Amino acid sequence: MASFRAFWNSPMGPKTTHFWGPVANWGFVAAGLADMKKPPEMISGNMTGAMCIYSALFMRFAWMVQPRNYLLFVCHASNETVQLYQFSRWARAEGWCHRIFPIQATCSLNEKELQEVVSMLVKKFVAAKQDKLQRPLKFAVGFNRRGIEETTSAKENSNDSKAFSLLDRNKCFGVVASAVNHVVEDSVVDLRSPELSVLVELLPLSGVPNGSRIVAVSVLPSNLVSTKPRLCIKALTSNTKEASLAP
Question: Which of 74, 79, 108, 126 could lock 55 by a disulfide, CB 3.0 to 4.6 Å apart?
Answer without folding.
Answer: 79
